[in-house]
Amino acid sequence: MFFDLTEQLRIREKKSLRRIRSVVDGPQGSHVTIDHHEYLAFTSNDYLGLANHPDLVQAVCEGAQRFGVGAGASHMLHGHFSVHHELECALAQFVEFPAALLFSTGYMANIGVITALVGREDAIFADKLNHASLNDAALLSRAAFIRYSHLDLVTLQQRLAVSRAKRKLVISDTVFSMEGDKAPISELIALCEQYHAMLLLDDAHGFGVLGKQGRGSLFLEDHNAKHSPNVVYMATLGKAAGVFGAFVAAQMDVIETLIQSARSYIYTTAAPALLSQALLASLKLIEEEDWRRQALIRNIMQLREELKSLSWRLMASETPIQPLLIGNNEQAVQLSGALRERGILVPAIRPPTVPQGTARLRISLSAAHQPQDIECLGQTLRELAAS
């Protein structure tokens, strides 16, 4: 009965596409313990090193004492706690939008936003390298799904100009999760205003890291995104913020529409209130401790200097996501395995997550990494390249 599944798995294994989970024992950090072995890790999206911060741990304990462990119900059925509301207000103020709405994950946020805002008579315009959650949401919405080549705004403009859709929605990552490069936000806003389209920006990898006080990609330049009624902003809270969840910020009517119509918000149990307690502490650290972002910038610069002599190309990125392009799936897996044998974790990323022929090592940097950690990675990669 399941022979076809077995055969599919065998083919995946043969193509070096099988994914394997590792079990971490202990807190997230620049060094992690797996199977009783300690590794230097370049695998986490904990960009500011907050996932094990004592202030967040203390906040969770206090939250559990006050609110218990489980929310017990959806936000619509008395699972919306006072600390959820407090966090939504704090997040809206932090990113300078009129209102914000919490979701359990970034995936659920994108699903909820897109399926609530567009449908059969509408059109979605999407960068081809957008995150899978944006693509899946577009398909679920049943709107026309029109994709343009990565960062190709000329094509985007042409397709917006000829569209006769009732409602238009452009969706884009701000920092592309497997490339590390950034979307041209100002230009996207201008196009959406010109062609009366909404713009959903997924800032999963920018929030907490980029912009003044870590307020995100919208604060990198003077593009007034936060003041444009066309913009819907999504950011996750399990990466730089170090905890869990996501939020959407937008105009009041958009947020109210999501409360009424976003199925991934309405029909799921609310996240534990204790997480919101921790996120309030995290938001304070993000705003006040700029040294974390400065350390992250230094780490990015050091890594690019360390790896510039390699035959493998380090892709253009100014963000903590530093992809080392290998090309061949098997070679990328072998290189990742060789690093692991030497006590260093760097994941191999292969199709379908990235396009065919662009398998890579995805190096994720954190403010928690020390100069000697990055030097160790560079030296080991140079040795492996020479072997």
Outline of this structure?
It contains 13 helices and 14 strands.
> Which radius of gyration do the C-alpha atoms yield?
21 Å
Major sheet: size, sense and barrel closure?
A: 7 strands, mixed
CATH top level of the largest domain is: Alpha Beta
Strand content: 15-25%
Helix and strand element order: HEEHHEHEHEHEHEEEHHHHEEHEEEH
For this structure, the CATH topology of the largest domain is Aspartate Aminotransferase, domain 2
Fourth CATH level, the homologous superfamily of the largest domain: Type I PLP-dependent aspartate aminotransferase-like (Major domain)
Broad shape: globular
Structural class: alpha/beta
Mean pLDDT over the full residue set:
94
Number of strands: 14
Spatial order of the strands forming the largest sheet: 3-9-8-7-6-4-5
**Could you tell me how far the N terminus lies from the C terminus, measured between alpha carbons in angstroms?**
46 Å
Walkthrough of the structure:
- The protein is of the alpha/beta class and 387 residues long.
- It folds into two domains: 20-48 and 289-386, Aspartate Aminotransferase, domain 1; 54-288, 3-Layer(aba) Sandwich (Aspartate Aminotransferase, domain 2).
- Helices cover 41% and strands 17% of the residues.
- The protein is built from 13 helices and 14 strands.
- The protein has helices at residues 3-14, 54-67, 82-95, 106-117, 132-141, 153-162, 185-194, 252-261, 263-266, 273-288, 290-306, 329-341, 371-386; strands at 31-34, 37-41, 99-103, 123-127, 144-148, 168-173, 198-202, 231-236, 246-250, 313-314, 321-327, 344-345, 348-349, 359-364.
- It has a seven-stranded mixed beta sheet with strand order 3-9-8-7-6-4-5, sandwiched between helices. The protein has a four-stranded antiparallel beta sheet with strand order 10-11-14-13. Strands 1-2-12 form a three-stranded mixed beta sheet, with helices on one face.
- A hairpin with a 6-residue loop joins strand 10 and strand 11 (321-327).
- Helix 3 (82-95) runs parallel beside helix 10 and helix 4 (106-117) crosses helix 8 (252-261).
- The longest helix is centred in the last third of the chain and has 17 residues, at 290-306.
- The chain is globular, with a radius of gyration of 21 Å.
